[in-house]
Amino acid sequence: MPLQTLTQGDRLSVVADGSWTAAQAAALEPLVDAIRGPANIRSMLLDLRGIVEIDTFGACLLERLIRRWREDGKEASVSGLADRFRGLVAAVDRVGGEISRPVEEESAQLAALEGIGRGIFDSGRYAVTFVTMLGAVGDALLRVLADPRRFRLASFVNQLDRVGLQAVPIIVLITFLIGGIISQQGIFHFRKFGAESYAVDLVGILVLREIGVLIVAIMVAGRSGSSYTAELGSMKMREEIDALRTMGLDPAEVLILPRVIALVCALPILALIGSLSALYGGGLVAWLYGGMSPAIYIARLKDAISVTHFQVGMIKAPFMALVIGIVACAEGLKVKGSAESLGLQTTSSVVKSIFLVIVLDGFFAMFFASIGM
Amino acid sequence: MDPANNSVVIDVRDLTVGFDDQLVLDHLSLDVRRGEILGVVGASGGGKTVLLRTIIGLIHQRQGSITILGTDRDTASLETIRAIESRWGILFQQGALFSSLTVLENVEFPIREHLHVSDRLREEVAKAKLGMVGLNAEDAQKYPAELSGGMTKRVALARALALDPEIVFLDEPTSGLDPIAAGDFDSLIRTLQRTLGLTVFMVTHDLDSLYAVCDRIAALADGKVIAEGPMATMLACEHPWVKSYFQGKRGRGAERLPSHSEH
Description:
The structure holds two protein chains of two kinds.
Chain A: E1 3-8, E2 11-20, H1 22-34, E3 43-54, H2 56-71, E4 75-79, H3 83-94, H4 96-100, H5 108-146, H6 153-163, H7 168-190, H8 198-237, H9 240-246, H10 251-288, H11 294-304, H12 307-333, H13 339-370
Parallel strand pairs in A: 2-3, 3-4
Antiparallel strand pairs in A: 1-2
Helix pairs in contact in A: 1-2, 2-3, 5-10, 5-12, 6-10, 7-8, 7-10, 8-10, 8-11, 8-12, 8-13, 10-12, 12-13
Chain B: E1 8-19, E2 22-33, E3 37-42, H1 48-55, E4 63-68, E5 71-72, H2 78-85, E6 88-91, H3 103-114, H4 119-132, H5 137-140, H6 149-160, E7 167-171, H7 179-196, E8 199-203, H8 207-213, E9 216-221, E10 224-229, H9 231-236, H10 240-247, H11 249-262
């Protein structure tokens, strides 16, 4: 028995022996917790002469026993501990107050409520961040317009290459497939009414007004927005942005403006290429699956769509690019010291910019409907 | 546990470690005795950290043997190695705290993985370790990203000590700390080493640490231990690198420090 108790009058004597280490801790703990003297016992004498081995786990259990007795207003004294263990037991005793202090834990309901509150508060604060970033970019733009030599042309061209030219293959592929799928679905369902040829109207209007630009914007948010956030975020982590500031340069002008303008220039071009590719995909499926010759497809397309549809799509593109660029850069600058926060902000950048792009698209739909476009 | 017992706990024999065609450690031999604090010094890129990482098994050697607590890693079974691994603790240079866990959870982690103790005792022991390194209950709920450099090192030390190890490896424990924090950390290491009867293997650049806490020092150069022994041996050593290290301007500055504090 590593722990034996003996009652002598109003005194309880507890004899501990053997090895009080982590390996025995699981067995010792219930024994320690079971020591509860009757109410008439005033004091406890802990005899530790028999302990041959003790580590922090054992020392914590002893500490717990002694503390519980003292908290009950009873006396507890220790005797016979070997010299070599004294330092450890004393060290645990010294930090005993910290051990017993409970960890503050909130109730689940309160935490849920707090989460909602924080979410609302954060989204309000996020709106401020977004507008601030928009303002900073606008300010930088005005300064650059006043003195065009300040514009970072090399950076702009480099970004244009990365977010524009290098994005072309994947954009072409995705929109080609989307165009094909819309065309196939249109032909398949319209066939029931003998109205297959209207699938061309479906493809043309949908692609030019909505899908072309929306799909491209979402692709760009995932591909380029995230890379903006990660880039600026890692620069923030390594204090490069602070270094720029102390050299008298405005990060909004040097880093953010070229990136946002590159995106605003690239997205309409990509949307045009994407729309063409989708129309091509739609035509190919109409030919191979629907048996509609390319000449008829083009003729139908000419009737179905007008420049207005194309304009509606193209007008939206730069605004979507602006939203993606501003969100990506704002999120990048929100990165704090850790790599974890970099990952978090990159995810948040993509989610927020896709969400805002779709919301913006909704507003544009209402706007164009009310002006009759 | 008895410091008077000078048995060897880490025995490195003829260790050769290299990467591609570059030889980092060349037939290096070194003993670490029970209950001592051994400081390993050497030029930057001289293989100190490589030696530490080889001993703990993160880098594999080309030749030679390492015997820790009587077990040779190369011949031991996986289970034996796991058992040995729970008898040492490692403080990495950057702390290597798990960023998704709180301070308390970081210290609890090795206990949770290696031992079967109740949740309550695990939390008590983790808090005791945090208390021993000078952190309080408020700090325990923080995440590593919220800690200062000194606190990160303290938490990492608490985690290294979580399983009551026999050997603690410290990789540049005072680097990145200000001199006051570094001095505090040195005395913390000294105190804990005495209290818990630890054997400490410390890689360091800090001359003050060497003077303040190390029982013995091993100097590494050209992939070998060129000098080994207490500070007096180092100061008497004629090897040019050791000489310029300990008797250069900064070395002499550090030498004066302990005598000041003794007044």
